[in-house]
Amino acid sequence: MADKFEAHDYYMMDEFFSDEQKLMRDSLRTWLKQEVSPIIEDYYERSEFPNQILKGLADHGCFGPYIPEEYGGPGLSQVTYGLLMQELERVDSGVRSTASVQSSLVMFPIWKYGSEEQKKKYLPKLATGEMIGCFGLTEPDHGSDPGSMITNFKEDGDHVILNGAKMWISNAPFADIAVVWAKNENDEIQGLVVERGMEGFETPEMKGKHSLRASATGELIFNDVKVPKENVFEGKKGLGGPLSCLNSARYGIAWGAIGAAMDCYDAALKYAKERTQFGKPIASFQLQQKKLAEMITEITKAQTLTFRLGQLRDEGRATPGQISMAKRNNVDMALKIGREARQILGGMGITNEYPIMRHMANLESVITYEGTHDIHLLITGMDITGINAFK
Amino acid sequence: MKILVGISKAPDTTTKIKFTNDNKEFDESGVQFIVNPYDEWYALVRGIEIKEAQGGSVTTITVGKEDVDPIIRKALAVGADDAVRIDSEPKDAFHVASQIANYAKENDYDMVLLGKETINYNGSQVGGMVAEIMDLPYISNASKMDLDGNKATIVRDIQGGKETLEVETPFVLSAAKGMAEQRIPNMRGIMAARSKKLEVVEPVDAEELTEVVSYALPPEKGDVKLVDPENVEELVELLHKEAKVI
Ligand SMILES: Cc1cc2nc3c(=O)[nH]c(=O)nc-3n(C[C@H](O)[C@H](O)[C@H](O)COP(=O)(O)OP(=O)(O)OC[C@H]3O[C@@H](n4cnc5c(N)ncnc54)[C@H](O)[C@@H]3O)c2cc1C
């Protein structure tokens, strides 16, 4: 079915965006409607990432939009980054995930903590999609508590020797490089770039996901991998390194989730106006109107919250607590809207004729990765009380 | 080839149409404007393709006030080299055509490419008027154009078929579907558009030859009447007496 999505902007938020931002967003939307919407259900069903769209994603600035021009990026604002992520997730959270990982989890740390040589070597190729990256933080036994990770490296002349394993890594099966977080000999967390082809490095795919099926997820296995010392990020030590990447990605997810919510709402609103039961469109029943009215209210609240967060981030003032609040609120909002919207479509809601069930299933990953729903609440709790309730 | 392409705005196809000023004016408030698709997808893209194949330049021309600048920027993002805006409200076809013709005459183009019509007014008048004022050949509704030196072979859509013509530059052409394929601006194009020149030019005197008396919406669609497939007689009767089509 042709993608007839229309964006919803109840509070005229578009007036805050420049003509150029809107052109970037709308061009991406047009491209996605033509090239990605028609194939996404199929790839989702087959549990495959459509690799052929990588170049288009790069052409539309989805890989590192805020990376400065000297490193091959367009040097755009955080709000623009958000708008692009919103469009991507409107189509599929898996597609947005690939772009989030590439931008916030791979390009961002290289840009912030990498050496000049690393930036020159990797960033331009990552921006064009010629090179794809992944981000290894989570381990089989260390998810919400990455600080307890066991992956580690030891010095060996002009190399380090990396050992350990990462799990749940988006893009891993086809990534050319991995930004890996591991402990050095002083037990400090440090990042390093591992390249495909290095001996002892493997990336088996994880199968059997009921969610985020159009995104490839895998493990990273390191058996005495010899990594040149120049691949280690000397610019940052400690958990703050990976956490700053997560902040950037979570910020993008806050925007992305609005996209998924809008797509569900749009499908439900149209369906409710067209579907007739008891001689009337189902949109004329109060129970259905309540659902739709609450959906647009929640979407509008999320849009205002997230735009303000974008402003703060552009000014370099957004705190991790503020980002957590938006990620948590928006993903939960989108998931609830997905569930309600699915019901409005009755039986049709569970089919792949409509995007809702796919969004719903995808959002179950989104509400878990990049800090679970619970963990973000603990972050807010700690922020307002000053008391750590994690341990 | 030195190419001039006409670019105008048109409301997004999902716009809810309303009128103001005693139904004499289209109400633009809250309307999302796009580049008129015949201008963008066909005239502009074909112009850019010709430039890419054999060099030259593509300049866009728009008659309008400042509010059309975003539309012009999009045309630049698609790949035009520079743009001209004639600073005047585009009220009627003759006024618009006079502005375009005057600018084109002064700046010597090999071809002036326009869309076959705008999707809101469907007037199809500007191209013919531009050609007439400039005293150049006019090829309307063109769906294909090949170039060999300064000779163009052009296919036109005509009722029930196609007509193939040859014409030498300079000429004026209005483009229809088939002339080229839509190009979606990419990030590089959008960023490059920032620094491309958009020249604002004062209009020349040109009267408006027409005046809008009123606009009206089409009548609302009536209910569908379902006829049993067995009951052909009733269908014929309804088509004859109610719908009055047979
Ligand atoms: C599809 C997908 C893609 C992913 N991609 C990546 C990737 O690219 N890179 C990467 O590094 N990781 C990735 N992840 C991993 C993801 O970040 C983790 O799944 C997430 O951090 C949660 O860790 P866990 O699954 O081990 O759950 P756990 O940490 O075991 O949590 C289980 C439950 O316990 C709760 N819990 C944990 N600690 C506390 C506490 N202190 N107080 C209260 N409740 C608590 C959690 O909220 C959760 O509900 C991905 C995950 C998925 C599903």
UniProtKB/TrEMBL annotation, chain A:
Enzyme class: oxidoreductase
Ranges of residues in domain Acyl-CoA dehydrogenase/oxidase C-terminal: 237-382
Domain Acyl-CoA oxidase/dehydrogenase middle: 134-225
Entries under InterPro entries matching the protein: Acyl-CoA_DH_CS (IPR006089), Acyl-CoA_Oxase/DH_mid-dom (IPR006091), Acyl-CoA_Oxase/DH_mid-dom_sf (IPR046373), AcylCo_DH-like_C (IPR036250), AcylCo_DH/oxidase_C (IPR009075), AcylCoA_DH/ox_N (IPR013786), AcylCoA_DH/ox_N_sf (IPR037069), AcylCoA_DH/oxidase_NM_dom_sf (IPR009100)
Domain Acyl-CoA dehydrogenase/oxidase N-terminal: residue ranges: 18-130
Top-level taxon of origin: Bacteria
The reaction(s) this protein catalyses: glutaryl-CoA + oxidized [electron-transfer flavoprotein] + 2 H(+) = (2E)-butenoyl-CoA + reduced [electron-transfer flavoprotein] + CO2
Keyword Zinc (UniProt): no
Protein name per the record: glutaryl-CoA dehydrogenase (ETF)
Species assigned in the record: Salibacter halophilus
Species lineage: Bacteria, Pseudomonadati, Bacteroidota, Flavobacteriia, Flavobacteriales
From TrEMBL, chain B:
Domain called Electron transfer flavoprotein alpha/beta-subunit N-terminal: residue spans: 23-210
GO MF, any single term: electron transfer activity
UniProt keyword terms in alphabetical order: Electron transport, Transport
UniProt cross-references to SUPFAM superfamilies, sorted A to Z: Adenine nucleotide alpha hydrolases-like (SSF52402)
Keyword Electron transport recorded: yes
Stored Gene3D superfamilies: HUPs
Any one of the GO CC terms: cytosol
InterPro entries cross-referenced by the UniProt entry: ETF_a/b_N, ETF_b, ETF_beta_N, Rossmann-like_a/b/a_fold
Family: Belongs to the ETF beta-subunit/FixA family.
Protein name: Electron transfer flavoprotein subunit beta
Native source species: Salibacter halophilus
